[in-house]
Amino acid sequence: xxxxxxxxxxxRPLKSTELGEQKLNKTKALAILSSDxxxxxxxxxxxxxxxxxxxxxxxxxxxxxxxxxxLILLLALILSYRQIIFAYPHGGGAYVVAKENLGIYxxxxxxxxxxxxxxxTVAVSVTAGTDAITSAFPSLxxxxxxIAIVFVVFITTMSLRGVTESASILAYPVYLFVLALFILIGxxxxxxxxxxxxxxxxxxxxxxxxxxxxxxxxxxxxSGSSALTGVEAISNAIPNFKDPAPNNAAKTLVAMGxxxxxxxxxxxxxxxxxxxxxxxxxxVVSQIxxxxxxxxxxxxxxxxxxxxxxxxxxxxxxxxxxxxAVYFAKDKFIPRMFTIRGDxxxxxxxxxxxxxxxxxxxxxxxGKTEHLIPLYAVGVFIPFTLxxxxxxxxxxxxxxxGWISKLIIxxxxxxxxxxxxxxFFLTKFTQVWPVLVFLPIIIFVxxxxxxxxxxxxxxxxLANREPAVPIEGNVIILPVAGITHVVENSxxxxxxxxxxxxxxxxxxxxxxDEAAFEEKWHKWQxxxxxxxxxxxYRSIINPxxxxxDTVQRKAGESNYQVTVxxxxxxxxKGWHNILHNQSSLLIRAHLLYRRNVIVTTVPYHLxx
Amino acid sequence: xxxxxxxxxxxRPLKSTELGEQKLNKTKALAILSSDxxxxxxxxxxxxxxxxxxxxxxxxxxxxxxxxxxLILLLALILSYRQIIFAYPHGGGAYVVAKENLGIYxxxxxxxxxxxxxxxTVAVSVTAGTDAITSAFPSLxxxxxxIAIVFVVFITTMSLRGVTESASILAYPVYLFVLALFILIGxxxxxxxxxxxxxxxxxxxxxxxxxxxxxxxxxxxxSGSSALTGVEAISNAIPNFKDPAPNNAAKTLVAMGxxxxxxxxxxxxxxxxxxxxxxxxxxVVSQIxxxxxxxxxxxxxxxxxxxxxxxxxxxxxxxxxxxxAVYFAKDKFIPRMFTIRGDxxxxxxxxxxxxxxxxxxxxxxxGKTEHLIPLYAVGVFIPFTLxxxxxxxxxxxxxxxGWISKLIIxxxxxxxxxxxxxxFFLTKFTQVWPVLVFLPIIIFVxxxxxxxxxxxxxxxxLANREPAVPIEGNVIILPVAGITHVVENSxxxxxxxxxxxxxxxxxxxxxxDEAAFEEKWHKWQxxxxxxxxxxxYRSIINPxxxxxDTVQRKAGESNYQVTVxxxxxxxxKGWHNILHNQSSLLIRAHLLYRRNVIVTTVPYHLxx
Lengths: 608, 608
Description:
Two copies of one chain form a homodimer.
Chain A: H1 2-10, H2 26-39, H3 44-52, H4 63-87, H5 93-102, H6 104-136, H7 144-161, H8 163-193, H9 214-224, H10 233-236, H11 245-274, H12 284-293, H13 297-330, H14 348-364, H15 369-398, H16 403-427, H17 429-460, E1 473-479, H18 485-497, E2 502-506, H19 511-524, E3 529-532, H20 541-557, E4 560-570, H21 583-594, E5 598-605
Parallel strand pairs in A: 1-2, 1-4, 2-3, 4-5
Helix pairs in contact in A: 2-8, 2-11, 2-13, 3-9, 4-9, 4-11, 4-15, 4-16, 5-6, 5-15, 6-7, 6-13, 6-14, 6-15, 6-17, 7-13, 7-14, 8-11, 8-12, 8-13, 9-16, 11-12, 12-13, 13-14, 15-16, 15-17
Protein name (chains A, B): APC family permease
InterPro entries (chains A, B): AA/rel_permease1, APC_K+_Transporter
Subcellular location (chains A, B): Membrane
C-alpha cells in the first residue's frame, strides 16, 4: 500500500547508473536555478519605494541612483561568482570557497547561513506567491497558511520525482514570466516615448527633498538588494550541469545576470516614471501593469505568471539545499543520511527535511512574507561576503596568471557584500536580530555533531586497538514464561549453539507458582538447568537484569560470552500484537541499551 | 526522573504479600462502593419532575406513586443482589451470574454493558459534580470540560495509590453528604409538621390532570429509576471485603439500600410538598435547601457535599471496572494485561484505561450530563435483567432448600428490570439508540479477541504436536558495512558459535566499491567467506532478504538453522542515535516479522 502510493507520487526507482541522464542543459538550468533570482524582481523594486515613502513621494527619484547601486552590486556578484565557478568546478559555492581558503569554521558559518537561507527561500517564495493568489481571490485570504503548505508539499513531491522532470514543469512559467515582463517594460517605454504618459506624474531627478538622510538611503539600498537573493544558486549546483559543466554554468550565470539587470532596471524605471506609490493591497508590478494595459488579458497574464514564478522559485531551494547538505554531511556537520540518493536519484532526505522545515517556518511566521524577507536577505549576504573574501585569499596565496584583475573583482565584491550585510544590521536591526540568535545555535549544533562523528570514527578504527580477545565459549540465558511451543523452539535453538551452558530463567510473582513450575520443568527438561527468581514486586526486568549481571561477571572471568535468547511469538495480523504483553520487546531494549549483553530473538510465527 | 514522579504520585511499590492489608471493613466499603448509588439521589427525583413538567405543574403529585414504584424496584434489586452475593461469594456480579447460568454469550452481553456503564459512571458523576461547582461560580462555566478532565486525572491517581487510601479520602464526604441530607429532610419535615410550610404550594394527591398519559408516566418512572444506578457495585467487589466477605458485603448492601430509600423518599416528598419546579439553572435539591434554610451556611454545606459526592461517586467505577476487567481478561475477552497488579496492588491497567476512556466520553459529549444519564441508566438495567434471569435459572436447576421464595424474589427482580429496560427503549429511543449501535460492536470485538486467544493457545500447547526436530547445525549471516571494531566484535562472536559456517555479506551501491571492499576484506579475514550483493537501486534490505531466502532454503534441506547477526553500535547519549542510520533496526524488524529468521543483535557500546 504505502509503497504503491510512493510509486504513484514519485515514479519508478532509477538505477544508480541512470544518473548521467538526469543532467541539465543550459535552457533547463536557467529555468530551474534562476527562478529564485528572477522572481525577486517582483518584490525588490517595491522594497526600495516602501522605505522612500516614509519621507515623501517626492523622494521617489532616489530610486534611480539606488537601483544603479544595486546594479553595480549585481555586476560585482556576477563577476565574482563567475570566477568561483571556474575555480571550484565541483560546486559547493560559498561553503567550499570559504572552507578551503579561510578554514573550516568560516566555511561552517557561510554554509549554515546558506542552509537556513534556502529554507527561507522556500518559505518566502511560497508565501509571496500565495499572497498574489489570495489578493486576486480575497475570500481565500484566511486560508493563506494552509494554501502555502499545500504548495510546499506539492513542490516537495515534484522534487522527489527528480531533477529533470521538475525542470520540464518549471521551464514554461519561468520563460512566460520573463516574456510577460519584457512585454510590460517594452509597451511601457513605448508609451512613454510616444508621449502617452504624462511627465508630471514624477518629480525630476535631483529635486531637493526635505528630511532625506544618508541612513534612510542606505536602508532603501539594503532593501533593494533583496532583489539579488538567489544569485549564488548556480555556483552551488555545477555538478547538475551537462558537460562541460563549468562553462555551461558560467554562461547560464551571465544570462541570468543580464535578464535580472534588464527586468530590475525596467521595473524601477517604469515605477519612477509612472509615479507609483506602494500601497498595502496592490503590488507595484500590478500597478504598473494596470496603468499600462488596464485590467485586460495582459494584466492577468502578468499577475498570473508572477504568482506562478514566485511559488516555483521555491524550487531553487530544492535544487541547492540537498546538494549543499551533501557537502555538509560529507564534512560530518550533519547526519550521513543526507548523502544517500533516493529512488529517483535525488537526495531525498535533504528534499524532505527542506520541505518540513519550511512548512514549520511558514506556520511560525503565520505566512507573513514581509517579516520573512529581511531575514532572508541578510542570510544571503553573509555567505556572499565570506565566499568573496575566500577568493581574495586564494588569489593572494596562489597568484595565477592575471591574478591582479581577479583580485580586484573579488575584493570589490567582498567589500560591497560586507557593507550591505552591515547595513542590514544597522538599519533593520529590529527585523534581523533572530539571525544573531539562531545562527550561532545552529553552528554550535553542527560543530557538536562533527565532534561526535570524529569521536565515533576514532573508536571504531581497527588500527587504534589491540585485536579483541577470542571468546572461549557461550553461556545462554533463556527467560521462559511457561511450557509452550515457543519455549521449546527457543530451547532447541539454544541447545544447537551451546548444549551444556543453558540456564532457563522463570520469574514467578507468587511463591506457590514457583514450586509448581519447577516440578513441571524438571519433568519436561530434566537436563536443562532452571533458575526461578521470585519477584515480590511483580517486575520481570529487575530480577532478570540482576541475575544476568551475576552470570556475566562469572562468565567474564573465563572469557565466556553471555547471550540472552528471547522467544518472541509473532501473530499473523499486526493488530493482534496489542493483545499480547510485549515483555520481550521491553526486555530486549532494556538489556541492549543498558548492558553489554548479546540478545537473540527467536521468532515463532503463529499460523492463524 | 519518570520513576521519581511515579513514586511521588502513587507511593512506594507494595509486595504481593501485603495484599491482605488492603481489604475493606464495612464502614469504608459503604463509603467506597455506595457513593455512586447514594449520589444518584441528587439527580434521580429531578428526572421524574422534568418529565412531569411537560404536562403541567399540577401533575407533580404523580411523583409520589412513581417514587413508590422506584422504591419497590429498589427493594426487589436489593433482595435479588443479596441472594447473588451469597450464591457468588467471589464477586463478578452480573457477568459471572449470567455466564454461569445462561451461558458465555449472555454473560458477555451483561459484562460488556457493565464495563461500558462504569465508564459512563465516571463521566456522569464527574460532569454532574462539575456542573454543581460551575453553577456556584458561573465564570468557570466555559471551562467545564477541562475541570472535569482534571477531576478524572485526580481520581485516577488516587485509585492508583490503592484501595484503602482512596477509601480514607472518600469516607468523609460520603458520610457528610448523608448527614447533610438527613438534616435537610429532618428540618424540612419538622417545618411541615409545625405548619411553617403553606399547604397550598402543591396540588393534593389524586387531583385529575388533563393530558396525562400512561406513556408519560412510564417515561417518568424510567427517568426516576436512574436513581438506582450503582446498586450492583457491591456484588462485583466482594473480594475487596474483609472476611467473612459475603456476610460483610450483604450487610453493607442492606445498609446502602436503606439509606438510599430514605434519602430518595425524603427528597421526592419535600419536592412535592414544597411544589418545586425544575428549572435549567438550579437543581431541585438546591431549591429545597434554599426554601428550608435560606442562603446560609447549611445551604452551602448541602451544595458543597453534593458536589463532592458526585465527583467522588466516580470512584465506584474505579473500584468495580478493574475487577470486572480481571474476570473478562481471565475469560480471554480482553487483553491479559488487565489481570496484572500494579506497584500498589491495584489493577493499574484497568484503572488507567477507565480514566482515559471516560475522559474521551466527556470530550465527546462536551461535558453535558443530561445527554449521558439516559445511556448510563439503560446500560445498568441490561445487566440487572440478565443477572436476575440467571438466578432464576439457577434456582430452577439446583432447587436448594427454600428455593421457591428465592425464585419468587429473583423472578420479580428480573421482570421489573426487563420492563424498565424496555421502557427506556420505548420512551427515550432518541437518547438511548447509541447503546444499540455500540454495544454490539464492543461485544463483537470482545468475541474476536477470545477467538484469537483460543487459537493461539491451541497452537502453543505442547501436547498438540510432534516434538520439534533437533537442529543439526548453524549457518551465520553477518551483514557488514565496513571494516571496523563493531564488525570485528560481531565476527568474533559468530566464530565462537559456529566457526566454519559464517557468511559475511556486503551490499555495495557502486561497482567500483565492490572490488575495493572484497580486496580489503580478504586481506583482513582470509578465512571468512564474503558475499557482495551489488544493489543498483540502493536498497540494502531487498538484496539481503533475497540472499537470506536462498541460504535458508539450502540450510533447511539438512536441518541447519540460519541466524542473522546484526552488529549495532550504541552511542553514549540517546540523542546521538539520530546521527546514525538506523539500518540495523530496520533490517531486524523486516526479518523478524516477514521471515522465519533468528536475529541476534550484538551491541557495541561507544565509550564517549
